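Possible regression after last week's pipeline update?

I re-ran a chain I had predicted before the update to compare outputs. Posting the input and the new output here so someone can diff against the archived version. Not blocking, just want to make sure nothing changed silently.
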Amino acid sequence: MLFTRRNALRFGAGLAATPLVSQTGWAQSYPSKPVRVIVGYAAGGGTDIYVRLIGQQLTERLGQTFVIENRPGAGTNLATETVARSSADGYTLLAVDTAAALNATTYDKLSFNFVRDFVLVGIIRGPLVMVVHPSVPAKTVPEFIAYAKANPGKVSMGSAGVGGSGHVGGELFQLASGVKMIHVPYRGAGPAVADLLGGQVQVVFPGPPSIVEHVRSGKLRALAVTTTTRLEALPDVPTMAETLPGFEAIQWYALGLRANTPANIVERLSKEINGATSDEKMAARFSELGMTGFSASAAVLTQFVANETEKWAKVIRAADIKPE
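New output (post-update):
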């Protein structure tokens, strides 16, 4: 065959198309091996519960195991750094929550910029819940405020860690109400709630997944939710804004990937997670836990995190929150 100009153009066009076909095939075959999901907390907290529910769904939908690895420490930064150093191939995911927006202000020197270096898929969101041990005599937020003010230095507030959503939400409550509590940080919401159940601390501000069943069983007492509307899972619990007008704190969970992960893989995961969270049974399960799905593009979710970062920076600075 003569290597004519026309044949040369066809040959060049074929070469140019090859990477596109290869990348598409790669994305279609994803995942071809187990996927790791790194969680920056101990097992049992809201983030861990969310990731295990989503991981089970993704395992069923994609035919590969999503392996959950708990790596608590440094306010989730250890887990985030692990994923930031991993290959951008979609096989190492990060369990993300509100801490991603908080750490940018809480920590002075991070080896990553979350908004720049990560992309999110599959957000669900809901309130924090102010819960107390039954030994606390207060049954309402005004009664708790009066009780805390009458017992300075005697009320301990547990949290999933310094600078986490429960800590910052509790600090916002203190700023808004004028009470002062002793902060007791743990390595995750699970251990914090465990000590609340044991009476070692008096109040915690966790996400709904880790405490809804305890509230329903009477082991803990919920005083308020921090969204502007009441929670379907706990319909009798008032909003914090009913006592402290304008009060709002949203807890959210998602999965994160390296920002330069192939777009088709990001889209595939986003599609499957959104499908899982909108499934009737899963949506009902999340509703039982006090959370709802939030389907949006990666760009919209990135802007959401940027807005959350700006909002909470003001509270962190006002409360002078510093990492341990």
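Follow-up from reviewer: compared with the archived run. The chain has two domains: 35-126+251-318, 129-242. Marking as no regression found.
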